[in-house]
């Protein structure tokens, strides 16, 4: 019985690891934050912090919304990510909570991996 349980646990671990490496899960929880899939559209959008300052932000889809028609504005930078206009990116991004911050600034986005970079037509 013990051998069957051990084999079952080993297979479950291998299955989870291979899915994580293939970026299968939509969301992975870790001690360092949450790791998600994110699509970044090939052009940035204008977003304003106040009436005097114009800021350029990413237009993104996250997790299960990737491939849908709707996009959301991401006002924070993605640390470690260098954006090139005209390319759509599929990324793996870690999201961490920042203590003492409020609103959208309480989230810190860090690039884990670029899955793809595709030239827009």
TrEMBL record:
Pfam family, one: DUF4377
Keywords, comma-separated and alphabetical: Signal
Source species, domain of life: Bacteria
Signal peptide positions on this chain: 1-20
Entry annotated with the keyword Signal: yes
Residues in DUF4377 domain copies: 40-117
Name listed for the protein in its UniProt record: DUF4377 domain-containing protein
Organism: Fluviicola chungangensis
């Amino acid at each position: 019985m013990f051998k069957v349980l051990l084999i079952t646990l080993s297979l479950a671990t291998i299955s989870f690891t291979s899915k994580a490496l293939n970026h299968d899960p939509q969301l992975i929880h870790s001690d360092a934050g949450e790791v998600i899939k994110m699509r970044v559209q090939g052009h940035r959008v204008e977003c304003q912090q106040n009436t005097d300052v114009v800021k350029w932000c990413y237009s993104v889809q996250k997790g299960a919304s990737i491939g849908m028609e709707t996009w959301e504005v991401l006002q924070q930078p993605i640390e470690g990510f260098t954006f090139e206009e005209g390319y759509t990116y599929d990324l793996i991004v870690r999201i961490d909570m920042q203590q003492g911050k409020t609103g959208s600034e309480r989230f810190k986005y860090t690039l884990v991996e670029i899955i793809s970079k595709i030239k827009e037509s």
